[in-house]
Amino acid sequence: MWYGPVWYRRCRSADSTNDQHDRNDLMTFGFEVESCMCRQRGLSIIELMVALVIGVIITFGATTLFLQSKRSYLQDEEVARVQENGRYVLRLLNRELSMSGFYGRVLRGDLVTSAPSGTDCFNYLVDTDLPFEHHNNVSANGVGAPNDPNMPAGCLVAGEHEAGTDMLVVRRSTDRPNYEKGTTLEALDPNAVYLRIVDDNVAITLERGGGATGSTIDIWEYSPNILFIRDHAITSGDGIPALCRRRISTGGNDVSAVECLAEGVENLQVEFGVDLDGDLQVDQYLDAPTSVQMGAAMAAKVYILVRSGNEIPGYTDDKVYTLGQTVVPAHNDGFYRKVMQTTVLLRNSEAFKF
């Protein structure tokens, strides 16, 4: 049966340059039939799907590695910050407690005969009879145990204290004089309070601005501190606990506003080592000593619980922390925490004075 002329066309090779030559070479009949023998080019659907799957796997692995690296970096950063803040706080508390009761060349604070008068908290801080005071497990209003020394309400920050933490009061002068027997070592601030010593303890007073100078006068800046844990660092409700302090103000006979020294300090516990038999050896550490026992204190163990500023993704703190005789239950949150401690010799305690 006749179907008319048929043309068979061979697939042009990749290097063919004469399309008409190929066409004429394959014309035999009248129709032009496309051959299916052409070479396949590109990717098949299966190859494309395999490539996509491999790409997804590689992308997922790279993303997972990036997220793990970022989480590790954030965790290391928070841990380093906790350690740095903790070391700073321990150094500060060590220095404050070891310097407590230091009044220049004066052996006893009760030898100070006069001081400026002002608000109840100012008068409380310039009373040098007690070198240090301890308020155990204060409430949110700053009120401690019944046997703790009475602290004026003007010294407290009602509703802002971290409940269950300790508060310290340290009275001392700076570690070097501003003025020594006719020689000015450091300029006197007319608004600051100074310990003025005449002729090596003949007359000892606290003076605003330091008082008159002379060849027999020593003048040391007076620097008491109230140290406590506040439930926020900057603004109320920010949720960042901090070690803070109050001092006597440099203008007017009052106390200064609260000044926070280190963020992330969640708990402070202090135990005092007391000499119960007068042999100049610590017999027992007490977390809530009486006023009589505080007079026999020779050393202090300081415990702090420091936490990170931010929660760490994927981390849960389910640990129970022990700060001396105080047990802090697990928080079960994402903050990293660390307990740090130090022991301080109370060099100017009444226990060492004969």
From TrEMBL:
<dbReference type="InterPro" id="IPR032092">
    <property type="entry name" value="PilW"/>
</dbReference>
<dbReference type="Pfam" id="PF16074">
    <property type="entry name" value="PilW"/>
</dbReference>
<keyword id="KW-0472">Membrane</keyword>
<dbReference type="Pfam" id="PF07963">
    <property type="entry name" value="N_methyl"/>
</dbReference>
<keyword id="KW-0812">Transmembrane</keyword>
<protein>
    <submittedName>
        <fullName>Prepilin-type N-terminal cleavage/methylation domain-containing protein</fullName>
    </submittedName>
</protein>
<keyword id="KW-1133">Transmembrane helix</keyword>
<dbReference type="InterPro" id="IPR012902">
    <property type="entry name" value="N_methyl_site"/>
</dbReference>
<dbReference type="GO" id="GO:0043683">
    <property type="term" value="P:type IV pilus assembly"/>
</dbReference>
<feature type="transmembrane region" description="Helical">
    <location>
        <begin position="45"/>
        <end position="67"/>
    </location>
</feature>
